[in-house]
Specification:
This protein is an alpha/beta fold. α10 links the parallel β13 and β14. The N terminus is likely disordered.
């Protein structure tokens, strides 16, 4: 596959079928990057690109860093925190991490050695992640002792910090920088204590807050911050595209799912390539995918599927398994939680002298560990059995395989999912897992793509400096697609596009479209109808369902701004899907093209790139095409039957939304939509009007 297209774009997205036993395959999103080394090069102060971008905002009181795993967020914090202490008059820095193991990310660093003006130092007694005792005992007293001391930096867990705020009040932390690592653990829900405390800190306005996350969206959960609090944060965004495009070694990332039947341990060998350094996450013992034979039994069966067990290494505690070809694999079992053995394996994995030794371990098998904050740069394959409960968790798991390391050119994430079987209950569960896997895949395609910037096409539109508009250049008579290779951003003109007016709507369109798309692709009604309902009209999904999601998510926006956000989100999702569809067809013919070519080809193939055209595309059409190749015909029919059995008639809320669209239709065309129209969307709007009229008549007569 070519790494560069004729336009210089380096983003390639395709479906890669890897044939397995029983004619099953992994439909895989395959993304190629330039590997130009820019994201790993440091400036004269020792800062990489993301860190420099964050440091430039160091004067902000409230700062949110949204950046992928392994992009250097902990060191970015060190640079900013030192400036806050030395140049901005703050007294203390308190770093809050979700679990003790992540505290090690903030150990001493000789930053002067790399060009910065100060070193990062944490007095051992104030890294409470290493201290004995529980979070609500001596550690809380240690927080108070730290606040009363002359020392300036403390590291503790989210739990310790919550108890400390409860005991001493938010005022005790005035004039401190509170840095929250893995910020996605926080939410605006009243049940989330840390989220509630952050709201109190912001209301008091006497502390500085720096929030860091590699997976900010919370598609099916509470918002991380309330809208009024979020507007106070200055955001530093560093995308997956920027990071991976700027790596030195890693050139390709594949993401896909694999359907199995029966027990996963019988088929795991089909997708476990032992030549790749792999983290295997087995399913929770209470999940549908569990064999119910016990977690340690499952680990033993996985090892047996790889080769013959030869004992344990006495020093590391790693299991030694001999392959049929005579190769001995070292397997770290993090599932067996016997204290002595578990501790030995963990210590061996964390051994700093082995960090750069590729041959230290071959496979890690885990259950709840080896996700967030786990650093094994050599991991090439994250193999996960069963659907994980959140997109955030999937992002974190994928992040284990996206570290850059010498000689590591390819990495992969594979999700093993149970194929539906005959019993109705199991079919329903399997359908839900399948839908979740598709949602994750769709979202990851969006996360890994370059950034979309949309502008309305009008008489004043013109070329923007720094953007490549293809071999023909910018055409003032047509909608244009530009691409900036350095920043990894698209500039796309769309006729009829509504522009956001308020500051918040503009921020959402620039920064948070993936938040909106995450909520949309996880909306079961949209996903089920888009994939399996042959009678679904695309506008029901793009206008009604997406419109409802935007209104529910951003009720503070006015209608025009809500419509602008809706249009931008639909455009981003549908353009990625259409480009992918074109590339899939081209790749089947042997062509090698990049996503920018796919987007540009799509816009050239249509007469006008307008918002109505984009709204008429089913966002899930290409996902269904992939699913049809991945599942057996019988399983696909079973899934369709389950969805068909759940189909419901119009709801009152949907009818109101359709009636609203019908009113706009009347304003534009001088008549109401017709129930006998051959156009399915016009007919659907007319059904909405008729439904409301019927409801009104029934209420009047009743």
């Amino acid at each position: 596959m070519a790494e560069h297209s004729k336009l210089g774009a380096t983003y390639i997205i395709k479906i890669q079928g890897i044939t397995m036993k029983k004619n099953k395959s992994i439909p895989s999103v395959s993304v190629n990057y330039a590997s130009n080394g820019s994201s790993t090069k440091a400036n004269e102060m020792g800062m990489r690109v993301m860190q420099e971008r964050a440091y430039n905002k160091r004067g902000e009181q409230y700062l949110l860093i949204k950046s992928p795993p392994a992009s250097g967020k902990s060191r970015a914090l060190m640079f900013i925190a030192l400036d806050k202490l030395h140049n901005q008059g703050l007294k203390k820095v308190i770093i809050v991490v979700p679990e003790k193991s992540i505290g090690a990310s903030f150990n001493n660093e000789p930053l002067k050695k790399y060009g910065f003006w100060a070193d990062w130092e944490v007095t051992p007694q104030w890294n409470l992640c290493n201290a004995p005792g529980d979070d609500n005992g001596g550690k809380v007293n240690s927080v108070k002792a730290f606040l009363d001391s002359n020392d300036r930096v403390l590291v503790c867990t989210h739990a310790t910090f919550r108890f400390a705020v409860d005991r001493f009040g938010v005022e005790a932390f005035d004039n401190c920088l509170i840095a929250v690592d893995e910020f996605h653990h926080v939410s605006a829900s009243p049940d989330n204590k840390l989220g509630m405390h952050l709201g109190q800190f912001i209301a008091r306005d006497k502390a500085h807050i720096l929030a860091m996350t590699g997976s900010y969206f919370r598609g099916d959960a509470e918002a991380v911050l309330s809208p009024q609090d979020e507007t106070k944060f200055e955001t530093v965004t560093y995308t997956y595209y920027e990071q991976l495009n700027g790596y030195e070694y890693l050139k390709q990332l594949n993401i896909g799912y694999y359907f199995y039947s029966g027990s996963y341990v019988d088929e795991i060998a089909d997708v476990l390539d032992t030549s790749m350094k792999t983290i295997v996450h087995i399913p929770n013992v209470n999940s549908r995918e569990s064999t119910q034979r016990g977690k340690t039994t499952e680990v033993g069966e996985i090892m047996h599927s790889i080769g013959e067990w030869k004992g344990k290494d006495p020093i590391t505690g790693f299991d030694l398994v001999e392959k049929p070809d005579g190769r001995i694999l070292k397997i770290a079992d993090l599932v067996d939680d016997g204290p002595e053995r578990h501790s030995k394996v963990l210590t061996a994995l964390k051994d700093p002298t082995q960090k750069n030794n590729r041959e230290h371990v071959d496979i890690i098998i885990a259950l709840g560990m080896a996700k967030e904050g786990f650093d094994w740069i050599w991991c090439e394959h994250a193999l996960t059995v069963g659907y994980r409960s959140s997109l955030t968790e999937i992002i974190q798991i994928i992040g284990r395989a996206t570290r850059d390391a010498k000689g590591k050119t390819h990495s992969r994430f594979t999700n093993l999912i149970a194929e539906p079987d005959a019993s109705e209950e199991a079919v329903t569960d399997a359908v839900n897992d399948t839908l979740k896997a598709i949602a994750a895949s769709l979202l990851m395609e969006q996360v890994l793509a370059p950034k979309f910037n949309f502008t309305p096409k009008n008489s004043e539109s013109k070329a923007i400096e720094g953007f490549d508009y293809g071999t023909a250049g910018y055409d003032p008579k047509k909608e244009n697609v530009g691409f900036n290779q350095q920043t990894g951003q698209f500039q796309i003109e769309i006729k009829g596009l509504v522009e956001p007016k308020s500051k918040e709507a503009t921020r959402i369109c620039q920064e948070d479209l993936n938040e909106v798309i995450a909520a949309f692709v996880q909306d079961k009604t949209a996903l089920e109808r888009g994939l399996f309902d042959s009678e679904a009209v695309p506008e029901e999904l793009t206008q009604v369902r997406m419109g409802k999601i935007v209104k529910d998510k951003y009720p503070e926006l006015n209608e025009e701004d809500q419509e602008a956000v809706r249009q931008h989100a639909v455009a981003a999702l549908n353009l990625t899907q259409q480009a992918k569809k074109i590339l899939n067809n081209d790749l089947e013919k042997g062509a090698n093209t990049a996503l920018i070519d796919g987007v540009r080809k799509f816009t050239m193939d249509v007469r006008d790139l307008d918002i109505d055209l984009i709204d008429r595309i089913n966002p899930f059409g290409e996902a269904y095409a992939i699913l049809a190749k991945a599942m057996t015909e019988d399983s696909l029919k079973q899934v369709q039957a389950v969805i068909a059995g759940k189909r419901v008639t119009l709801t009152l809320e949907e009818a109101r939304e359709l009636a609203k669209r019908a009113l706009k239709f009347k304003q534009e065309r001088g008549r109401l939509p017709s129930l006998t129209s051959p156009d399915p969307w016009e007919k659907k709007m007319a059904e909405g009007v008729a439904y409301l009229a019927r409801m009104k008549a029934e209420a009047k007569n009743g």
